[in-house]
Structure formats: C-alpha cells, structure tokens
C-alpha cells in the first residue's frame, strides 16, 4: 500500500548496493501444535540487511508520495 512518505521507486546505479545475510537460516519443526491432526508444521526464519556503499559518489533518486 502506498502511504505518505513511502518510497516506491528508486532509480540509479545499484552496483554499489550490497545485500548481506546477517543470520543463517533457522528451520523449526512444530510437531506438538499439529499432533492432534497427525500433521507437522515448519517455520523458517532468515535475516538479511542491505546498504548503499559509498552513496556520496553514486546517489540514488527516490520517488516518494505525499498524500494530501
């Protein structure tokens, strides 16, 4: 959903944009919650982070929405 001050489109050179994995994937097996129906549930959690390295030399243009 587009809300006020929400950045929806970014233009520019993304060669200095870095994405890294902060935490290895964690997979949890949930047996007791679904045992009544003879089922097994799984939940997976993974954490990521990103940043623009050296943003002063390669700026990105952002379109933000101002709802009135």
UniProtKB/TrEMBL annotation:
Keyword list (alphabetical) reads: Virion
First-listed, main subcellular location of the protein, grouped into a coarse class = virion
What is its subcellular localisation?
A: Virion
Which GO CC terms are listed, alphabetically? virion component
Q: What is this protein called?
A: Uncharacterized protein
Species name for this entry? marine sediment metagenome
**Organism phylogeny:** unclassified sequences, metagenomes, ecological metagenomes
């Amino acid at each position: 959903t587009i809300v006020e001050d929400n950045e929806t489109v970014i233009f520019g050179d993304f060669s200095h944009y870095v994405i890294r994995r902060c935490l290895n994937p964690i997979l949890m097996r949930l047996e007791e919650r679904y045992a009544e129906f003879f089922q097994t549930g799984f939940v997976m959690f993974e954490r990521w982070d990103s940043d623009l390295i050296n943003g002063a030399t390669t700026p990105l243009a952002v379109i933000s929405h101002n709802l009135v």
